[in-house]
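Usage

Read records sequentially. Each one opens with the input sequence:
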Amino acid sequence: MSLTNRSEAPRPPGRPRDSRADRAILDAALQSFIDDGYEGMSVENVAARAGVGKTTIYRRWPSKKELIIAAIDGLFEHLRVPDTGDVRADLVFVVEQAHRFLTETKAGEVLP
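and closes with the structure output:
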């Protein structure tokens, strides 16, 4: 009798990725984008801000462009569009949520 679960896919080689590193990298990328603009930001600077190596970033995002797209995309992960059946109430909710999004998050700095 085998003690392993054969339905589980084998884990890829190497150390598992740390989701905290992902968050630190994306936060550092956003801050670098805000502070330095796209042209002034560099993967080296993002790595230093996040406390990771450049290779850690390049394993996840192959270019600066893809990194900043992922960072900006992450700003939208908590937005949701309701469908309550009341169009007016849904639109009011979306506008209020958009206002909070632009005033209470980094989105207001990133998306002028």
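Summary fields computed downstream for this record:
- The longest helix spans residues 19-40.
- The chain has six helices and no strands.
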